[in-house]
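Protein Atu4866
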Amino acid sequence: MERINKLNWFLTTKNNEHIGVWVTKDGYIRHEFLPNGRYDETRGDIKSAYTGYYNRLGNHVEYLDDTGFVAEGDFKDGVFYHAGMVLYKESA
């Protein structure tokens, strides 16, 4: 059973072009936005290095990691900026 979101965060937009995998240019970080409001970040060979909930409000994303920290990021011109990283959407 999936953990219940304590803050009642949920996906608030029907605009879902953010869903999918976003990757740094070197491929080291792979950040996946899932359609259920969860995210899963792989770092190098470490799968699910970070997981938690996200909430997108326009171009802004707020995170609540499963370990308890919070973070944020922003989409701008098809690029995702998060915690000093620049990520690009992986094409199919």
